[in-house]
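JOB MANIFEST
job_type = single_chain_structure
chain_count = 1
residues = 177
[input]
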Amino acid sequence: MSKAINDSAFRLNLHELPRRAGEMREYRLDISLKERIGTPLIGIDKGELVKLELRAEAVDDGILITGTMSSLLRGECGRCLAEIETAINQNFQELYFYENRKPEDEESDFFVMDSDVADLEIATRDAVILALPINPLCRPDCRGLCSICGEKWENLPNDHSHETTDPRWSGLAGWKG
């Protein structure tokens, strides 16, 4: 496995990979993020290390890149707002067309090589976004927060409750029959 030489964080120079179908090379990139990837609730923070292990295979129309990205996710539990820190490992596969082989369809999004360079940023971002949990939890049995006082249910006694009156009945509060 060789270390990729790149002039920009996500740009992978594939000059050493012959343009003959069936040729293959492996690469490893360690990238420190310049900006956060994710949602407001959970993501990979700016400055965090993203590791890409890649296999680039020459095919007739371009380079097929198969890879695994791994990093550390940080965020908040969607129920109790506790801090979450968990590993992310996501596979992805994208075809990067040679400039002279790109499809004529202008309305579709294709990855196209810039000379011998493949920009992996969008593919990596897509892999991260697809791997993010929709509702991240600190643990599967998280009970969340009390909707009245906002305390964590796990810190409250089992008999915790609040006396609430439906505001629609407040006009009758002083009436006695």
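[summary]
Helices lie at 121-131.
The chain is about 5% helix and 35% strand.
exit_status = 0
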